[in-house]
Design goal:
about 250 residues; alpha+beta; 4 helices; 10 strands; disordered N terminus
Amino acid sequence: MKFVRLPVVMGIVSVLAGCRPSASTTPDAAASPVDASESPSSTDSPQASSETGWSPVTDEEGVVVTSRPSERSPLPIFRGVGQVDAPLVEVLAVVTDAERHREWVFSCSDSSLVEQTSESTGIVYNRTDTPWPVPDRDVVLDSRIELVDGEREVIVRFSATAHPARPPTDGVVRMTYLEGHYHLWAEDAAHTRVEYQVDSDPGGSLPTWLATRGTRDMPVETLRALRAQVARTRGLYDERIAEFRRTLLAPAS
């Protein structure tokens, strides 16, 4: 099958943002390359996440946000965990529709599929709005779906990469380090626990107040909006869900 529009993050860089920008921006220093960070284990769970050095940030609208220092970035790693009232495969269908991320991902202004590399992997472009005069950030991501336990547990991982079809844009800071995931657990047939985590270096200069506010707001706003998007688009992804079940999520023979 042709795996439709892998995601990303989805406001990824929104750790920078807190509101929409004015029309113009000012060029900023380029982001510096950073080595890849440790990747979260697929055996992590929302319960385990709070037991490995994570500090509480906020608990609102049913989203628990925690953070911990990053070894690769001046900003902390942030993580949000909350429940979505939908089956796991329906949430997966929404999360992997990159063309509609701007409808619900916090401060995401542009997201598109650059290249489909396999049924479960792809290259995705993402741009995040930042308040004027801070330049927007963008990133090219290698995104992949990792099956852990069929329809009971799935991880969508993403990490910064490069692609000739999406070179850096003048006036926009290209992020060269970003790693994260959407980790989905089926709590039952009608509810999914979603963990959204991002570790990123936004590059250039960034006001401390903006980074701090983004750490708090992005997980809450993104997961809150994901709930609304799932409800709003219910029925639109029936064909995709059926195809996921026939191919990507089908038990091995």
